[in-house]
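Example 3.2
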Amino acid sequence: MPFIGLSGRVAVVTGAGSGIGAATARRLTAEGCRVALVDRDGSAARAVAKECDGETLVVCADVSDEADTSAYVAAAVARFGPVDLIHLNAGISGSFGSFAATDVTDYDRVIAVNQRGVFLGLREALRYFRHEDRPGAVVVTSSLAGLRASAAIVPYTASKHAVIGLARSAAIEGAPHGIRVNVVAPGRIETPLQSHALKALDDPDAERALRTHSPLGRMGTAGEVAALVAFLLSGEAPFITGGVHVIDGGVDVSDPMRIQE
């Protein structure tokens, strides 16, 4: 059954060239949305657009750039009319290593995309929906790393903590205007970004353990996250805003003292 209130809507998805963003674009077009796929890699986004079952627009943009952020929303409006839904998903992992070894250049690069990009996207969403005097729904992709800590991916962890604060602040400001803002916090999901993280371990045994470490015994799929995003953007979630919605196979509630049966 399709979600209520998505058919005919106009959506913008950042980081749509792969992973969760690509899955969201496919899911929203399947639900009847017209979707602007935003990515720095235009060729990747165009490949995803060919897989979508509906009207799409590909916009090559840098989410960390202020002018590009305004431009990708404007491009969607110019092609499809007023925007209703936004998924701020674009993100990079950065390098892996100890806190003490973290390079400030890498830190700044990750923060620019993952944190600044979400700040600019949320600010543009609030400005756009308020100027147009219309309700809207926004979902931000954080991570389980935004709720926990890791000394091995410090820039990524910092950025994903930060976007939760940004999104919840935007939810407070947007609520009186009918603008809902929610966060999804995926755990280990089968995406190119996750594959990069697992390969960085350079340890097949550790990789196998991480792939099956959730209580459900597997990694999640990008499509499963996209389904949650679509629900939060839909008319079936009208009273949900400011929430952080974990999708991790139970990792966040796993019991380290549990005796295996």
